[in-house]
Amino acid sequence: MNGAETLARERIFSDRLTVDAKGMLCIGGASVGDLLQRFGSPLVVGVEETLLANFERIRDAFGTAWPGPSAILYSTKSNDTLAFRHLLSRAGAGGDCFGEGELRSTLDSGADPSRVALNGSDKTAELIDLALVHGVTINIDAADEVDLIVAAIARTGSSARVNIRLKVLPDELGPYMGGSTQRHGQGIASVRRAKWGLGPDAAQQIAARLQQTQGLELTGFSVHIGHLSNRPEAFASIATAFGATVRKICEKLDLRPSILDLGGGWAREREPEQRGVPIERVTVETQVKAACDALASALGPLADPVEGPVPELWVEPGRYICGNAQVLLATVGSVKEDCGFRWVNVDISTNNLMRIETGAFEYQTLPASRMHDLFTTAQEIVGRTCFRSVVGAGRLLPKLVRGDLVAILDAGMYAEVFATQFNSMPRPAAVLVGAKGEIELVRVRETLADVFAHHRVPGRLKWPEKE
Ligand SMILES: Cc1ncc(COP(=O)(O)O)c(C=O)c1O
């Protein structure tokens, strides 16, 4: 086995990864060696075609499977690169936003505000004003949020569009919940304990109040349980429970929703979250069809075009769109062999891939400058910080030496957004490879001055002779 063969086995439809005659990995046609020479190491490399291919595929999957209109609201928390957000807004993606930063960057990128949802468990009055003024839909997550919205309608003179976020607890979901969710309770108990969403009774009370509220449109309901599994049955069980709860509330209150928001968590075909365990690749079309069929069936007349307009289906994919749209490149430094191990230090660390530390992610790591060399040696790929910083444990690769290049796949999701400066380490630069081969800087490399830019040393502690 070598890097090129591993890539051929692991490749998914939207990867733009090839190997040149010298055994160098190329990303979107650009040689990794050239990229690092030009922009320095380490480097995050984004690929426009990959991002857009993922977006189009999930958009088309919902367009085909749902009997009514549908919209993709890119979940910017998974990767907040402004260039990505602009590309997606130009392609027609709406947005799922938490907090002012995500909302402003989504709106500034040109996303259509009527396809933007504001989520969050503790929204401020200022944030609600901002949403109202721009015509953004608010996914309500608590009864006291209604008071804030009523006050915001009076203050801004704008009308409000709101969904109610439901908490659904389908028992059938239990077996699909693993990994980090188990820290918070066994199976579905961990969803019950999570702060998000409203149970059916609380949701119904809020809906009844909203129906009576002037200047406000109750557009529908939302749900998001989070990434659990790639199994179609898991998505179907959430959709069934969501649809049944919506139907019950709507029948009680004589409502017909115009929007239903099914949230994110749509699984990729290669997941660092699979933690090294081989997974059966399930296409997004299979997950989406299972969810849409289950939702339509649970909604009954609410999804029947003969009875009235079918609600617009919103979904909030993050990882599916950006997961493989960035590759993290690093260079090998010190190599040590002792006690039966070989430690290969690279100039990144788990600072740049925090989900290794917080979610036990395992990333596919390729020997980017030696893709034709046989895998001969198990090695610990380790980072520069004083954590253990295990980027890859016991990885079978060519015997790596100082100056070799490595590429970490799937570094597009929940990586840069979680990156830290632990050990006073500046964060890397990022470039974007365009569809026509353009290579452009989209995030400037941090310097040590950036790391300490917001620190202040009180005058009494300074050394006048030194500063
Ligand atoms: C409300 C909401 N929507 C969407 C997402 C995106 O999830 P994913 O990246 O798994 O698609 C999240 C992630 O936490 C979320 O909290």
What radius of gyration results from the CA coordinates? 24 Å
Q: What's the CATH H-level homologous superfamily of the largest domain?
A: Alanine racemase
The low-confidence parts are none
Helix share, percent:
25-40%
Structural class: alpha/beta
Q: Categorize the overall geometry.
A: globular
Number of domains: 2
If you consult CATH, what is the topology of the largest domain? TIM Barrel
* Biggest beta sheet summary: 9 strands, mixed
Give the overall pLDDT as a whole number: 95
Oligomer: single chain
Gap from first CA to last CA:
56 Å
Strand content: 15-25%
| Helix count from the secondary structure assignment | 14
CATH A-level architecture of the largest domain? Alpha-Beta Barrel
Look at the structure and give the CATH class of the largest domain: Alpha Beta
Secondary structure tally: strands = 20
The hetero compounds bound to this protein are: pyridoxal-5'-phosphate
What are the defining features of this structure?
467 residues; alpha/beta; Lyase, Ornithine Decarboxylase, Chain A, domain 1; TIM Barrel; 2 domains; 9-stranded mixed β-sheet; 8-stranded parallel β-barrel; 14 helices; 20 strands; 31% helix; globular; binds pyridoxal-5'-phosphate; Diaminopimelate decarboxylase; PLP-binding_barrel; EC 4.1.1.20
